[in-house]
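Board notes (copied after class):
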Amino acid sequence: MKYYSEEHQWVEIEGGKARIGITKFAADELGELSYVELPSVGSVFKQGDSLCVVESVKAASDVFMPIGGKIVEVNTELEQKPELVNEDAEGEGWICIASDVNADELAKLMDEEKYLASLKGK
């Protein structure tokens, strides 16, 4: 199951690890991405911390950590192909994987239905 933040990030828990990225809505709003600044493997973030920056011709935008944890893997393919985020934001365009996540923090996030409802009128 995916969980969503108000800042348009998603997190999917698999085997005790969290795969993290930005939502399709966020990718569409930003336009074609030209650069993704990946977080460093080994970095530890709290929920709500600035995780990285994504840049497009429209703007540079912070990506916030939807759940606290330690970065154990980054999607290095984004270094050469940042447009993967636009093509498949909630799939192959993932940004990183975190371990040591606090599952209790998921309660502060939305399920897909609530997230989609929050987009009405945007």
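Comment from the instructor: The radius of gyration is 13 Å. The domain at 2-105 is CATH 2.40.50.100 (OB fold (Dihydrolipoamide Acetyltransferase, E2P)).
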